[in-house]
Amino acid sequence: MFSFLYRFFIELTNGRVTSALLKNFSQSRLSKPIIPLYTKVFRLDQQEAKDDFASFATLHDLFIRKLKSDVRPIAEGEQAVVSPVDGILEDFGDIQEDKKIIVKGKTYSMEEMLGDPKTLQKYLGGKYLVLYLSPSHYHRIHTPISGEVTQRWSLGQKSYPVNKWGMLYGKAPLSKNYRIITELDYGQGCVAIVKVGAMFINSIEITDKAKRLQKGQEFSYFSFGSTVVLLFEKDSFEIESDLVIPANVRIGEKIGYIK
After folding, report:
1. Which residues of 168-188 are buried (b: 16+ CB within 10 A; e: fewer)?
2. Global confidence as pTM
3. Which of 26, 142, 159, 175 is catalytic?
4. Residue 249 contacts residue 141 (beta carbons within 8 Å)
5. Number of neighbouring beta carbons within 10 Å of residue 248
């Protein structure tokens, strides 16, 4: 019953009008007075930011702030895979041969998430990682490993919450939300970077459309907190042995290695 009511009220409030109003507000100068309160509530670190928070004209500018170039060192080594975001590693595991993954006890269709049966085949039996970004996190997305971009595509229309309640009571947000997928070929296999939109501000921007991306390079951002899912091919990736669930991770930190 609670799950039904949760979904009902989310649908009731998650429409084009409400989403557009919130998005327009966050990108207008009317949102500037909220910045000090937002900064305090979410305990944002001014020392890491490239620009002073007081210089931002809108709340959206704060959401997509950049960091100083030296605050996120990138783990060295060609085989090292690094976190593409500042966030929380919520789960990791195996991509099942029956085209499913189980995240926090909830089953997701990989066929629906990727929307391409042919692409999906290469990831069956591989590994997945789910990285959640809260509204307090830095919202830009970086490359987990150097490689050639083989394809980019988008799926979905609306987005639902990907926070704790959304993952527990929502209707498969990781595979139904609006999302943009970037696939990289790193020479020994491929990784699919699934960028999942968040409720209301359903915006994912690609900032670098280059055909080759270097490890640690910024290439996109979220306009609000959301989730990144990494998918690796079978027998190609091993997660760091000392990572536990949940784990706070930062851009550039080693989360695993290519086998």
Report:
1. ebbebbbbbbbbbbbbbebee
2. 0.89
3. 142
4. no
5. 11
